[in-house]
Amino acid sequence: MKRRDTKILEYIRAGKDDKAIALLYKNEFEKIASMVRSRGGNEEDARDIFQDTVLIFYKQLKLGRYDDRYETGAFIFTVARNLWINKLKKDSRLMGLEEVSEKLTDEEEVLQQVLTSERESKVKFLFRQLGETCRELLVLAYYHKLSMAEIARRMGFKSEDVAKSKKYKCKKHLIEKVKDHEGFRNELTL
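The structure corresponding to this sequence follows.
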């Protein structure tokens, strides 16, 4: 964790909210404002999104749902980006450009999106640690959704049963890596 992240968390936990907000604003606002402007927003939109993001951050921290290992800036930016995307979706629905019956995303859903994104990147990291054969087989099976017969043919296995067996072992190996990975231990017990 970066020193400034530690300082922000110390300020919040010590009840020095003004100092924490000033530091968050100094370190993170311009990145969020730039992202909002690049996606059609203005300075007022950026301030609104930043304020909502800080409230979500505080709430997650106070409820004990924020993991201190997260980089504060990345967490703040991801929440802000998701809030801005949801605002754009809401605005386009109100203007009749989209006929989608989605409910507005609340802060719990935004947090879930952040956590899902982090989980995906952890799984991708662990996936890259598998052997080349396992990676190729799992991509063909789950991403390309090929049949076991087609996978066996493409990968040169003797039969469909060999492909099934290898897929099972590769999947099991990845699941074990996920279970053993420190970053997932806390999440799996929730």
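The chain has two domains: 1-105, 129-190.
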